[in-house]
Amino acid sequence: MDYLPYSDRRFRPAAHVITMISLFALALLIRFGHPVARQVGTFPLHDGGLFYVIIQQLLTVEAFPAFINYNALDIPFAYPPLAFYLSAGLVTLFNADITTVLFIFSGVLAALMVPAAYLLLRALLGDGALPIVAAVLFAATPNVVKMFNAGGGITRSLGAVFMLLFLWQLLGVYQTGGWRRVPLTVIFGALTVVSHPAATFVAVKSGLVFFLFWGRNRKGLVQSGGVAVSVLVASAVWWLPVVLTHGADVFVRGLQSGGQGVPVPLLLMVFPHTGETIMAYTAVVANLALLYALFKRRWFFPVWILALVAFGSRGAEAARMVPFTALIVLMGADVVAGMQRPAVPAFRLQRYGERLIVSAFVVVGVLFVVFNAWTQGADYGTAFYRLTPEQITAMDWLRENTPADAAVVPLTQGTNWAFDTVQEWLPALSQRESLITVQGMEWLPAEVYTGRIEANSALGECYTQDVACLTAWQAEHDITPDYLFVALPHTALARAIATSGDYELVYDDSVQIYQPAADSP
Fold first, then answer.
1. How far apart are CA 389 and CA 487, in angstroms?
2. Which residues, 6+ apart, have CB-to-CB distance to 215 below 8 Å?
3. Please, which residues bridge with residue 505 across strands?
4. Over the stretch 29-53, which tens digit does the pLDDT of each residue have?
5. Residues in Cβ contact with 292 at an 8 Å cutoff, skipping those fewer than 6 apart
6. Pairing of strands 433-434, 73-76
7. How many Cβ atoms are within 10 Å of 361's Cβ, its own excluded?
8. DSSP assigned state of 486
9. DSSP class of residue 478?
């Protein structure tokens, strides 16, 4: 059997609610509980600079803008807007800073993903301990925790919550054959669409798999069509004005930042990317569980995983761990059941003590996974995950001491632009143009977007070289900065700039800011 049938026969509301609250609390503990994570303040993790500007402009400029001004560009406001309006509402309600709302709201939304995943897992695995253990494993997967708790996680997490709830209700529609779940399915589907584009893509791919296994009949086809049309109509309040203003191709451009997938066999070989640091316990067991499911000819979860990675895995960080954690607990249940069968006397659990040992092994394994995720909270204080106070102060200095039309080149450490915190936040906090920031340009024509990526990548090659490389790079890409923002003064390029005589140091406090010397060529 591919799954345990959906059933409400043993539904106990009080226990059900307590379970979801407990899972939510566990997720909050993993995110906010580590002492280091609590000591470094409330500035958002990783990304969120563009979202900061969007929320700021919704509050101060226009409630329903056609364009967002970010990094000296007028960017079409075609991004699903629900999370931004909710964040703006929280800023107004609590008179809070936007950065604080991004920090806390993203963490709370990411924690809400866990009870939402539990509802879906319970529909797939039935009542009892299996969906609870699977939900705990889901909550403790570091790569689920990381990106959904970042500043940009307000949209990713919100979209993932509604996507999981949509799939939960859609599964109920197919497995019960009734219509009473259709309204909630439509509501959650529409909320997914207006929350995050990648979550919508994952919902569509997963929904097709659910239809393949449970909806292949006349009634299922009618229900599926009704849900799809209703979601499209309900979400038109957002996408229709965008299409009328910017044209439908703006959505195609917006998908540019997703990147291209790699061949499916390679993804399956290295999947899942759990991000565990102490020991890849969940990743190893998940891959074993996948092979076990294929051996047992339980096709649903492997097909679901295949669908999530086959056509681009962007946005599947949360969804892909649902089938993997389900496979883990199903394999575990089979192992325990096999050990109790008379057909395998050597492994039969005949005494209470033996059963206690197996239970203790399971509990210790789950606790280890949770501890592994919790310890990664220490990483949230590092420069990779957030701006340092010195970097924030330097950006404030730029805003207060340079011309409004000044152009800046931030020099960091040559990491992938998508993970460069300084590059995204500099335009937001300094209100000055960054000549290499890529974020936001995915909504512009493809040649503009790819040109910026090429320039960004080429600059990264100069970090281990001297000023001549920087000068050649400027000439090749027709870039003339008014200031250099040296976020990490210890690189070879930063040291070369300091001694070259071509640049004048105007700010020095852990971060260095230079402008071209008056006599430089």
1. 12
2. 173, 174, 221, 223, 224
3. 514
4. 877 765 555 555 667 777 889 999 9
5. 327, 331, 334
6. unpaired
7. 10
8. E
9. T
